[in-house]
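Reopening this ticket.

The earlier resolution said the output was attached, but the attachment link was broken on my side. Pasting everything inline this time so it's all in one place.
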Amino acid sequence: MSFEVVTTPTLPKPGQFTQVVKKGNIIFISGQTAEPEAAAGNLDPLAQADRIFRYLKDAVEAAGGAMDDICKINVYLTDGSQFPAILELRPKYFKPPYPAATTIVVQSTVQRALIMEIEAIAILDEAHGTRRAGSAAKARNRSKKS
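Inline output:
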């Protein structure tokens, strides 16, 4: 089975890659950057991170999911001092339990003004009904009854 290309009109037009692909119930979101902020010379980590998280939200929703379906993010920063922006915004876009995450400090992204990049993987429920957070709550309730 090949993968499905998900149309994402709110994300920047990609080059020789696809922004979002879906294979079965798994959604792969390419690394997102804050091109509008970078192009305007805005190197503020909070502004760039907020734009990127909004892109991730748009991407997962375009694929039929929600932020609760994102189970893994990889964060690439060009300076470790940018990490507090990620920590500040994570609760705005995700609810506990937070997705698994890896954060790496790199020398540079493809353009110097793009100071960070975040990619994500989401897994949809087979029935597209109960989200990851809801499933965790149900599991906790079952364990309390036993």
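Reporter confirms the inline version is readable. The chain has one domain: 4-145. Helices lie at 35-39, 45-62, 83-93, 132-145.
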